[in-house]
Specification:
It is a single chain. This protein is α+β, with helices and mostly antiparallel strands. The protein is elongated and about 125 Å long. Helix 4 runs parallel beside helix 6. A hairpin with a 2-residue loop joins strand 3 and strand 4. It contains 14 helices and 8 strands.
Length: 346
C-alpha cells in the first residue's frame, strides 16, 4: 500500500517532469528557425523573408523551389501575391515595366493566361493592348481566344480566334500593296507565270494585301452599313487574316462579292454568278484554282467548304502557306481549318 509520503513524492516527480517538458518545448520553440528548411537564406535576405512570409509561405517557397531573385523585386509591394511571383518575374523579363504595374496586371488578369503562354503573349502584345483586350473584347465575347503567337505563318483567324491589334514587323511594299516579305519572290513568280500564258492585256493585278487593325475596322463598318451579312465574306479587325500579311487579294474580288450579294442563294450555287462574269475573269479564276499552289498559295475560302471557313467561296483571296503545304492542301482539297500545321507534312 502506497503511503501518503510516497504519493506526494510521485506527484512532485510528475509536476517536475511536466515543468521540464514545457520548458524544453518553450526553449525549442524560441530557438526554432522557420527558415532552416529554405536553402536560399542569407544574412542579407533573412530579415525580409521573416517579415513577409509565414510558415505556410516558406513551405510554398521550398516546395516550388523559388529562389529570392524571383520575388525580391516585388515582395515589398502592397498587392504582392506569392502564388503569382513566377508570373511577375516572367512578365518583367519578357517586357519590362514598373514593378507595381506588373503586379497589378498579373493579379487582375491571371485567369486569362497560363504561365506557359504569358511569355508568348508579352512577346507580341503590349501591356496596354492586353489590358484593353481583357477588359473589353474578352468580356463582350466570352468564346473569343487571343492567339498567343500571331507571328505563326499558319494562324487561322475567325469569330473565335483574334490577334487583336497585333501588327507584323516584316512587312514590305510590293506592287502597290503591303505583304510579308517572305511572299515576295513566290508572288512575283506566280504573277509572271500567269502573264506568260495569257495575253499582255490580261495580268494578275493585286488590289489588297496587309491591312492594319484600323483599316480593317473602317472597311468592316462601312461594309456593315451596306450589307447585313458582311461576316459571310469578311471578318472584323483582329479576326481578319489580312491583318497577318500573308493574304493577297486580286482584281475581281469586288465584282465577285457584289455578285454574291445580288445572286447567291442559300444552296451556294455559284453557277448563277458565272453567267455574269466575263471570260477574262473566269480564266483568271480557273488558272488560280489550278496553279496557285505551285507558288505556295491556296484559295483561302474554297468552294463547298463554306461551313468550315465561315465565308463564301472567294477565288480571288489567296493565303500564302509555302509550296509543300499548298500542294498538300490542293491535292487533298483541304482548307486551313482542317489542317494541323505543320504536322500534316510529317
Amino acid at each position: 500500500m502506497i503511503t501518503k509520503k510516497e504519493l506526494r513524492a510521485r506527484v512532485l516527480l510528475i509536476v517536475v517532469c511536466l515543468a521540464v517538458g514545457l520548458y524544453c518545448l518553450y526553449t525549442m520553440d524560441k530557438s526554432y528557425d522557420p527558415l532552416a528548411r529554405y536553402p536560399y537564406t542569407t544574412d542579407e535576405n533573412r530579415e525580409i523573408l521573416l517579415k513577409y512570409f509565414d510558415s505556410d509561405d516558406i513551405d510554398y517557397l521550398v516546395n516550388q523551389h523559388i529562389s529570392p531573385d524571383k520575388f525580391m523585386d516585388f515582395v515589398e509591394l502592397k498587392d504582392f501575391n506569392l502564388k503569382n511571383t513566377l508570373y511577375y518575374k516572367e512578365a518583367k523579363e519578357t517586357q519590362d515595366a514598373d514593378n507595381e504595374y506588373i503586379v497589378n496586371f498579373v493579379n487582375r488578369f491571371r485567369k486569362n493566361f497560363s504561365y506557359e503562354s504569358l511569355k508568348e503573349l508579352l512577346s507580341h502584345y503590349s501591356y496596354l493592348d492586353l489590358t484593353t483586350f481583357y477588359e473589353n473584347e474578352a468580356v463582350l465575347y466570352s468564346d473569343l481566344r487571343l492567339v498567343a503567337d500571331p507571328t505563326n505563318p499558319y494562324v487561322v483567324l475567325n469569330q473565335e480566334n483574334t490577334v487583336y491589334k497585333f501588327a507584323p514587323e516584316k512587312i514590305t511594299s510590293f506592287n502597290g500593296i503591303m505583304i510579308q516579305s517572305v511572299l515576295v519572290e513566290d508572288l512575283q513568280n506566280m504573277m509572271d507565270a500567269y502573264a506568260s500564258v495569257m495575253n499582255e492585256q490580261d495580268r494578275l493585278t493585286l488590289t489588297s494585301g496587309y491591312l492594319s487593325y484600323e483599316q480593317i475596322m473602317d472597311q468592316y463598318v462601312n461594309a456593315s452599313k451596306e450589307y447585313d451579312g458582311v461576316d459571310k465574306y469578311m471578318y472584323n479587325a483582329g479576326k481578319n487574316e489580312q491583318q497577318l500579311g500573308y493574304t493577297v487579294v486580286f482584281e475581281g474580288q469586288d465584282e465577285w462579292i457584289h455578285l454574291c450579294k445580288e445572286r447567291l442563294n442559300e444552296d451556294m450555287d455559284y453557277a448563277l454568278l458565272d453567267e455574269e462574269l466575263s471570260d477574262e475573269v473566269k480564266n483568271r479564276m480557273e488558272w488560280l484554282e489550278e496553279n496557285a499552289y505551285r507558288y505556295g498559295f491556296v484559295i483561302r475560302y474554297e468552294k463547298e467548304q463554306e461551313k468550315k471557313t465561315g465565308h463564301w467561296y472567294q477565288p480571288f483571296v489567296l493565303r500564302y502557306v509555302g509550296k509543300k503545304m499548298a500542294k498538300y492542301m490542293h491535292d487533298s482539297y483541304k482548307v486551313m481549318e482542317q489542317v494541323s500545321f505543320p504536322d500534316e507534312l510529317e
